[in-house]
Design goal:
Strand content: 5-15%
Helix content: 40-55%
Number of strands: 9
CATH architecture of the largest domain: Alpha-Beta Complex
Bound molecules: 2-acetamido-2-deoxy-1-O-phosphono-alpha-D-glucopyranose, magnesium ion
Number of domains: 2
CATH topology of the largest domain: Aminoglycoside 3'-phosphotransferase, Chain: A, domain 2
Radius of gyration: 21 Å
Largest sheet: 5 strands, antiparallel
Low-confidence stretches: none
Mean pLDDT: 95
Strand order of the largest sheet: 1-2-3-5-4
Length: 363
């Protein structure tokens, strides 16, 4: 535990002071630590917010407050008894009960209650995928009547047209001089550009609404209890208005993929239809009541869109010289890109089956 970290932890109004602070999780953007305090007292999660990416930290924390307060109220109305395990609790500053972040002159920090006896997984079985689908659908449905509008913490975050503009700019500049050796990937990505911007096209035609979405529904952004039941959704940084495709598609990108998102051996990458079916069934059971026919019929497109968008984002970062995502080795973003493209290919083969399954559920 460095003196700097314990000094930061001490800025927050917690039940007891830190005795141990160790790194936690594997996020690609923020730095996360588990803070242990005295025996019998709660533990906490301390996070350094990447403010180069989340430039409006106040707006970010205001969003999170609006969302967690709203969900807390809904759970209370529903008579749920273990509310502190079902929604995140952010700690205020010792000096200011209305502020949930601390600026140390260089970095922004926040702290939340650690939910004991909780687990995250990087893979799920079909059995748990069903619970995950139900929970993300429930999360979206609880936020359907969220008063006011949320800030787009990262503007145009899941806007495919914008992500392609960033890619084209990166290719044009070729800052790191890497384009020559990977031109085939650039060509493949650009050849699908128009088809993959369907969501923006539908939105402009007034056929696709924006709703409050989580926008980072990777499988490891969900907490499960000891019995494997879903407790709650975590990592609320990107909760913002988006198309429901975001949450549906990004879960399947990681949850239904048979390998990690940076698997170097693309032969190991497949799209697991059992997980697809279980997740989709769960999702439709809780979100089906508010989804429109256009949203439902384009769920297979959503499943393809997110590996594609992630390939575009990883590749853009590779071309830019790795300025956005944390990398563990020089070619990491390129390996990630290839893995996402391989997954996209597997998904494209299975889209007719997906369409058929969804139609059968809605019949
Ligand atoms: C980032 O920080 P993390 O790992 O939860 C990224 C997501 C990507 C994901 C890919 C703010 O999420 O959009 O899908 O990496 N978050 C941001 O693993 O860019
Ligand atoms: Mg995360």
């Amino acid at each position: 535990m460095t003196p700097q970290l314990s000094h930061i932890a001490a800025q927050f109004a917690t039940a007891a002071s830190a005795t141990e602070i160790v790194p936690l999780g594997e996020g690609l953007i923020n730095d996360t630590y588990l803070v242990t305090t005295a025996p019998g007292k709660p533990s906490y999660v301390l996070q350094r917010i990447n403010h180069h990416i989340f430039t409006d930290v106040k707006g970010l924390q205001d969003n999170i407050k609006a969302v967690t307060t709203h969900i807390r109220r809904k759970l209370t109305e529903q008579g749920v008894d273990d509310i502190d395990r079902r929604v995140l609790t952010f700690m205020p500053l010792v000096t200011d009960p209305d502020t949930t972040y601390y600026f140390d002159g260089e970095n922004y920090w926040r702290m939340m209650l650690y939910i004991p006896r909780s687990h995250t997984y990087s893979e799920v079985s079909p059995y748990y995928a069903r619970f995950a689908g139900e929970e993300f659908g429930r999360f979206q449905s609880m936020l359907v009547d969220l008063p006011g509008t949320l800030t787009e913490t990262i503007p145009d975050f899941h806007n495919m047209e914008f992500r392609l503009t960033q890619l084209r700019e990166a290719l044009e500049a070729d800052t790191a001089g890497r384009l020559d050796s990977v031109r085939d990937i650039a060509d493949e990505l650009l050849s699908r550009a128009d088809a993959m911007c369907l969501a923006e096209q539908l939105h402009r035609q007034g056929k696709l609404p924006k709703r409050t979405c989580h926008c980072d529904t990777k499988v490891n952004n969900m907490l499960f209890d000891d019995e494997g039941k879903v407790l709650c959704v975590i990592d609320l940084d990107t909760v913002m208005p988006s198309y429901i495709f975001s949450d549906y598609g990004d879960f399947l990108r990681t949850g239904a993929c048979t390998a990690p998102e940076d698997e170097p051996d693309t032969d190991k990458i497949d799209f697991d239809m059992d997980i697809f079916r279980a997740f989709t069934e769960g999702y439709l059971s809780t979100a089906g009541s508010f989804l429109t026919p256009v949203e439902i019929e384009n769920l297979p497109y959503a499943a393809a869109l997110f590996p594609y968008m992630q390939a575009v984002r990883f590749f853009t970062d590779y071309i830019n010289g790795d300025t956005y995502y944390k990398i563990r080795y020089p070619e990491h973003n390129l390996v990630r890109t290839r893995a996402q493209l391989a997954l996209l290919h597997r998904i494209e083969e299975k889209m007719p089956q997906m369409t058929e399954f969804i139609a059968s559920k809605m019949a």
